[in-house]
Inverse folding.
């Protein structure tokens, strides 16, 4: 005869549950779900001005983007940016973790040095690197001068500007990724190493056949993070290159910002935002279907 | 060979560490020397605090520090309240629609606030929050990531404690405040460290929604101060940069273990 009680309890839980959820649900709707839909909506309207009010134009903004050579240049830049920063950061992070986990002198210093860039703002990182890149006076040029190399305007020429941006990104994120590898390495049982030693396996074999496969879940996790970073880490552009010279180092999010807040062209910015959301959706799908298969949310 | 490898390892590790820390060291060097001594790497040059004086007088830093401090506080308080309530609902309540809403929340993990700048800017303006600290902080308060984290923390609380509190006559809210919140303290600490360092360092969104020195956080202030158009020299920029990263950097160096643990705990699900 506990049915009425159970019913009452269930209803109370439902009410309380939704009450507890409502503040977060409200803010999430206002700052994530509604803006996503609104972005799509405004991407289908023309940019209004005094003479021509904004009107529905379907996918024309997208067609404009696809016809815009700057857009393709920016996409190419961003793919290159992702294509270099993701594997290089992962490789450096892994090397850092293997070193920081081995018995070396000054290990505390080494770990701190690797991780410190993580707690700095991207803007500060850009300022620090400005000192390296400044032509003539910068550290890189001075080192180059020691070897008789000519001065290079790292940030001012199209061939090197994007590389300069990439290096700052790698510097910023590798130490962050390292800690995940470090944590994973510490869960690998010691006996595996001992067994490998007894079998006479070289260190390289041990690393490649035992350590790397065991680190695979961590690598995938880091990869998803690095993919997201390759979309959102653009703050240093504001200091170092502003996307230049001649758009050579411009990345998508920076272009969206420029489009919306420098050129006041919100519809095209919205269309580009939709494309980025699509890419992030694909990353999300990779995460959910490929990576979280083995982990469970309980 | 066996003897050589550890030495090579140590050398490689330390070399990389020195390279990694060198931008900070150079900035440190430049900040305490006159510009010409700094760029000529004149080792014997006298140390000076002039750059810090020049930098400090060049912008309302005190205000920027205060703004950043207010911002991270407001964001953290908002996040704690919202994620605690939502996390508890997801972890311990049964109600229709819960799973669907949870999937929606997880989706938000990938809708980065950074990407929605155009519409969020319109929204903040509509709410009359343009150029306010609350306007900078609000889009981050209902963090899907935080909700997920709190849900995980609350799920690991033994159900016996919950039952015991209920038998003692504790209300839902009482159970949450007296049982769950204290037990999730390590998660709160980790989340706080990550949140504070994220928002201390955030730039793009604050750049967009602020328009005056009265609300501008440090990062935006620093970017305006250091802009090449302003022609500030490298030593002064270095001094300003060190100044604005000092609080977080010192906190990190002192509580290094906690920081690393926090990033780990909040990163690995």
């Amino acid at each position: 005869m506990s049915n009425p009680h159970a019913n009452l309890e269930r209803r109370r839980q439902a009410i309380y549950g939704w009450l507890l959820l409502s503040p977060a649900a409200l803010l999430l709707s206002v700052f994530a779900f509604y803006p996503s839909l609104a972005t799509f909506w405004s991407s289908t309207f023309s940019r209004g001005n005094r003479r021509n009010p904004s009107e529905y134009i379907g996918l024309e903004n997208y067609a404009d983007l696809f016809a815009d050579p700057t857009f393709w240049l920016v996409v190419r830049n961003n793919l290159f940016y992702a294509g270099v920063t993701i594997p290089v950061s992962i490789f450096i992070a892994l090397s850092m973790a293997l070193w920081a986990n081995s018995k070396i002198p000054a290990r505390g210093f080494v770990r701190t040095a690797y991780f410190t860039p993580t707690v700095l703002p991207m803007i500060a990182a850009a300022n620090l690197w400005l000192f390296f890149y400044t032509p003539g006076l910068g550290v890189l040029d001075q080192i180059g001068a020691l070897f008789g190399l000519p001065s290079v305007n790292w940030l001012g020429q199209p061939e090197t500007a994007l590389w300069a941006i990439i290096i700052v990104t790698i510097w910023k994120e590798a130490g962050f990724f390292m800690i995940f590898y470090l944590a994973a390495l510490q869960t690998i049982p010691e006996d595996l190493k001992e067994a490998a030693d007894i079998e006479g396996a070289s260190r390289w074999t041990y690393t490649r056949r035992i350590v790397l496969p065991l680190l695979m879940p961590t690598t995938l996790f880091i990869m998803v993070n690095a993919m997201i970073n390759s979309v959102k880490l653009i703050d240093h552009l504001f200091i170092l290159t502003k996307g230049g010279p001649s758009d050579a180092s411009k990345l998508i999010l920076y272009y969206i910002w420029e489009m919306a807040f420098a050129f006041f062209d919100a519809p095209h910015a919205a269309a580009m935002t939709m494309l980025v959301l699509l890419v992030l959706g694909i990353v999300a799908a990779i995460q959910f279907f490929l990576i979280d298969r083995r982990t469970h949310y309980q | 060979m066996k003897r050589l490898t550890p030495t090579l390892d140590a050398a490689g590790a330390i070399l990389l560490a020195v390279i990694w820390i060198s931008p900070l060291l150079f900035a440190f060097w430049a900040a305490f020397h006159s510009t010409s001594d700094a760029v000529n790497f004149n080792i014997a040059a006298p140390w000076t605090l002039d750059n810090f004086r020049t930098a400090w007088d060049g912008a309302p830093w005190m205000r920027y520090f205060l703004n950043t401090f207010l911002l991270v506080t407001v964001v953290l308080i908002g996040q704690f309240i919202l994620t605690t309530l939502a996390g508890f609902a997801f972890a311990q309540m049964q109600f229709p629609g819960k799973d669907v809403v949870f999937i929606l929340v997880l989706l938000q993990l990938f809708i980065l606030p950074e990407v929605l700048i155009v519409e969020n800017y319109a929204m903040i303006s509509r709410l009359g929050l343009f150029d306010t600290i609350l306007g900078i902080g609000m889009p981050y308060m209902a963090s899907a990531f935080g909700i997920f984290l709190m849900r995980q923390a609350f799920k690991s609380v033994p159900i016996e404690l919950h039952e015991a509190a209920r038998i003692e006559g504790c209300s839902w809210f009482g159970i949450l405040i007296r049982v769950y919140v204290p037990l999730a303290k390590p998660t709160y600490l980790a989340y706080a460290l990550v949140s504070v360092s994220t928002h201390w360092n955030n730039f793009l969104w604050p750049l967009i929604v602020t328009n005056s020195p009265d609300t501008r956080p440090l990062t935006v202030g620093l970017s305006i101060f250091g802009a090449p158009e302003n022609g500030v020299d490298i030593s002064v920029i270095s001094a300003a940069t060190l100044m604005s990263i000092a609080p977080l950097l010192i906190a990190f160096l002192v509580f290094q273990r906690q920081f690393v643990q926090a990033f780990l705990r909040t990163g690995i699900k």
Notes: The radius of gyration of chain A is 25 Å. Chain A has a mean pLDDT of 86. Chain A touches chain B through 95 residues (CB under 8 Å). Chain A is about 75% helix and 0% strand.
